Amino acid sequence: MGFVLKEERGFSYIDEGEGEVLLLLHGLMGGLSNWEEVIEEFSKKYRVILPMLPVYDLPVITTGVKTLSKHVHKFIKFKKLENVVLLGNSLGGHVGLIYVLAHAEKVKALVLTGSSGLYENAFGGSFPRRESIEFVKEKVEYTFYDPKIASPELIDEVYKLVNDRHSVIRLLAMAKSAIRHNMKKDLNKIRVPVSLIWGKNDKITPPEVADEFHQLLPDSELHWIDNCGHAPMMEHPQEFNRLLKGFLDKIKA
User: Fold this and answer.
1) Beta carbons of 163 and 131 less than 8 angstroms apart
2) Where are the domains of the chain?
């Protein structure tokens, strides 16, 4: 897909379409490719923006979910965005939750898919040393219900990441920060409408995590996608887009 990555004032981002803003927040391992079909579909009627989160570019001491949330706030101010619908997958969902708590006035609604914030089986001690491509392949495949979604390109990308000392130190720091910043006590303060779109076979943030989010968030709805792992918008993009469209139509009405 020919999306243009813009570089401005220290921000890298994709900005497609016009209209109400959908702001996409990617996870620890995934950037643009994870959201490709969402951008393609929704940029016909919305302004879809994906800022690249500086997961691997921060000083180790400040590497964490709160710093990423501050980065999102600087970006939203820089682009003068209001009334944003935030969509977050995995770590991106966690960053979205922290952002909404700090800046509710900027956010119209929130969509979480495979979000961290309550339960972290996601990474932690998984990458302590230089790993073989086989080990990485197994880890990436574990993310999906259908291991074929783990393309050679994706495996290669993650392999490079976990074998780069600079990146892996930040990866572990970010994972520890996600575990420290458990959201359980704060979710009742989130008053915006939230749609939870979850893979029924997510092994990283399992179904009971979605149930708990649903119970703790005051205004939430929960949708399941069958035969689906941790990244529904990659594994079942059409079904994900259909559920997302239903939610957006509802909050519009």
Assistant:
1) yes
2) 6-119+182-252
Q: Could you list the mean pLDDT of each consecutive 10-residue stretch along the chain, which spans 253 residues?
A: 86 96 90 87 97 92 94 98 97 97 97 91 51 86 94 90 88 89 96 98 95 98 98 97 98 88
Rounded Cα distance between 196 and 138, Å, is 27
pLDDT at residue 65 in the model: 95
Single-letter amino acid code for the residue at 52: M
Q: What is the pLDDT of residue 125?
A: 47
Alpha-carbon span 227 to 131, nearest angstrom: 29
Burial level of 39, CB count in 10 A (0-12/13-18/19+)? buried
Which residues lie closer than 8 Å to 19 by C-beta, 6 or more apart?
45, 46, 47
CA distances (Å), 164 to each of 4, 133, 134, in order?
A: 27, 13, 17
For 241, the token pair is 């887009």
Contact 175, 127 (CB under 8 A): no
227 secondary structure, DSSP code: S
Chain Cα centroid distance, residue 117 = 11
The superfamily (CATH) of domain 6-119+182-252 is: Alpha/Beta hydrolase fold, catalytic domain (3.40.50.1820)
| Euclidean distance between CA atoms 195 and 176, whole angstroms | 26
Please report which helix (H) or strand (E) contains residue 209, including its range.
helix 207-216
